[in-house]
Design goal:
Rossmann fold; alpha/beta; globular; 20 helices; six-stranded parallel sheet; about 15% strand
């Protein structure tokens, strides 16, 4: 076998089902071997950043390591933002990147790829020799999975046609066994819970598994505490009578009241970011117990009153056992009155609010999104790009399971939505993927990928929040009474451009076209783009 065949075979041995990429002279033969093997699917993107973002989207909806491949030099510089997004989000991906021969100093695309990768927060692993190919691949995939980070696997072009024997290695990625928290800190935490009159349980993304969810629900029943989630674990407690929903600046009024009245927050697998705590307003004056499954921290973490490290399921049981041993009664923080108020919030959400006044040719974002929400299947994947519309998207297009929320804003970059939507859409085939993007981010990175959606013929609905400007910048100009001309984008006819690449498309500019768009969603038979025209002078909430 040639080395490029060994690498492709290694991907199959690793169980890689989806390989996202863009070929060049330093990775094309490996990709061709992967496709020829028939053991996985190759999804070609039109920009390296979107190929890496697609691997991130795939990882978020599956919980597995995403895999992308790009060529060398400018391919890696193009993907730097995507790698940083994965690093800041703690998302495991492996990017198999070609590289120039070490002695070819005059190569046009030569650059210091190790320095580039490390600057993004990614790990860099060299494919050293032809006979160590699978050993190096195993290390890359192991580090990505166990350390929850992006890894660039560097594959030099001068090695790829070397002869080598077929290689086999056991890729056995076992779950790291973590015991429950124990000792004095656990006892102190139980004491805080026992003395709380209005405890609240908060669950983050680390609690997605069924076992963790069920254990937390059981503990909540034991201490009679309402349940909340971070944005990234939205839908975890779907259907529970005391699920107050998202904790943070997306909380509904009843949830906000419950959070503010709580005196002890027990946070499982939640980083306690400023968005979850509303810049500390929700945790001020409260005892906060944080239970994390490992010691891998992120810059988003806020210091709790007390932190426990231990298995989520085992720690909840340990807390329950100590409460039972001490015969601590429930808190009575959950009752029929709270259940009724939460039912009323759900009923209120089901009602489409009246539209506010906007300039002609535009609609009010909240009632429009709420109506589109009713037209869309309840089970769907939501990918929201970044922009001032994003809070409206998260609030008005909720998901029913955490894996169905693809979060694209770890690095604060617009334009990361389309790539991750591709990764989600080619992976999930039993429900639609809904991409919500702004016109600025869409112009930056999404137009070039419409042909990918057309070629893949996936069930994708794009809701393009088109206010004709860079919204956050527009607001700042207006707030300072400066003409916002520099923030205006003068966007093209997005619907016409979508149709030119083979997608169905429609434009919403008034109530009648909003109704037509809802019908288009119900009758869709492939990717659909909805150009939602919005008033730039209305701040979205």
């Amino acid at each position: 076998m040639k080395l490029h065949e060994v690498v492709a075979d290694g991907l199959a041995q690793l169980g890689v089902t989806h390989l996202f990429g863009l070929i060049g002279d330093a990775n094309l033969f490996m990709v061709n071997s992967f496709v020829a093997s028939g053991k996985g699917r190759y999804i070609a993107c039109n920009h390296e950043a979107n190929a890496v973002l697609a691997a991130i989207g795939h990882s978020q909806v599956t919980g597995h390591t995403g895999v992308a491949t790009i060529t060398h030099g400018p391919a890696l510089t193009n993907a730097a933002t995507a790698l940083t997004e994965a690093a800041k989000g703690g998302i495991p991906i492996v990017v198999i990147c070609g590289d120039t021969a070490p002695g070819d100093l005059a190569h046009l695309q030569k650059t210091d790829q190790r320095a580039l990768a490390l600057a993004t927060g990614a790990e860099f692993i060299e494919l050293r020799y032809s006979h160590t190919a699978l050993e190096d691949m195993e290390r890359a995939f192991r580090k990505a999975a166990y350390e929850r980070k992006p890894v660039v696997l560097n594959m030099r072009v001068d090695l790829q046609w070397e002869d080598c024997v077929p290689q086999t290695i056991t890729f056995d990625f076992q779950d790291v066994i973590q015991g429950p928290a124990s000792g004095p800190l656990l006892e102190e935490a139980v004491g805080m819970i026992a003395s709380a009159k209005r405890p609240l349980i908060l669950a983050g993304r680390a609690c997605i598994g069924t076992e963790a969810r069920d254990a937390i629900v059981k503990l909540a029943a034991r201490i009679e505490a309402p349940l909340a989630t971070t944005l990234k674990s939205q839908g975890l407690f779907e259907g529970h009578p005391f699920n107050i929903g998202i904790c943070g600046n997306l909380s509904h009024p009843t949830a906000t009241e419950v959070i503010m009245q709580s005196d002890c927050i027990v946070a499982f697998g939640a980083s306690l970011s400023k968005y979850t705590t509303d810049n500390g307003a929700y945790t001020k004056g409260k005892r906060v117990i944080q239970i994390m499954p490992d010691t891998i921290e992120t810059p988003r973490m806020e210091p709790p009153t007390l932190r426990l490290i231990g298995d989520i399921v085992g720690t909840t049981q340990a807390i329950t056992d100590l409460l039972d041993l001490a015969e601590i009664p429930g808190s009575s923080a959950t009752d029929t009155h709270l259940a009724e108020r939460l039912e009323a919030e759900a009923a209120k959400f089901a009602i489409i609010p009246p539209a506010g006044a906007t300039v002609p040719g535009t609609v009010d974002i909240v009632p429009a999104l709420r109506k589109l929400n009713h037209a869309l299947p309840r089970q769907r994947v939501l990918v929201a790009d970044l922009g001032r519309f994003v809070f409206s998207a998260w609030r008005n297009l909720p998901v029913t399971h955490p894996r169905d929320l693809v979060f694209t804003s770890h690095f604060g970059a617009i334009g990361c939505g389309m790539g991750q939507a591709i990764g989600a859409a080619v992976t999930v085939d039993d429900r639609p993927t809904v991409l919500v993007a702004g016109d600025g981010g869409f112009l930056m990175s999404a137009l070039g990928e419409l042909s990918v959606l057309s070629r893949e013929a996936r069930d994708v609905v794009i809701i393009l929040c088109n206010d004709g400007c860079y919204g956050a910048e527009h607001v700042q100009f207006v707030n300072r009474k400066i003409a916002p001309d520099l923030s205006m984008t003068a966007p093209p006819d997005f619907a016409a451009m979508a149709r030119a690449t083979g997608l169905d498309a429609c434009t919403i500019s008034d109530p009648t076209s909003l109704d037509a768009a809802c019908i288009a969603i119900e009758k869709r038979c492939g990717p659909l783009l909805i150009d939602l025209r919005l008033d730039p002078n209305k701040i979205f909430k």
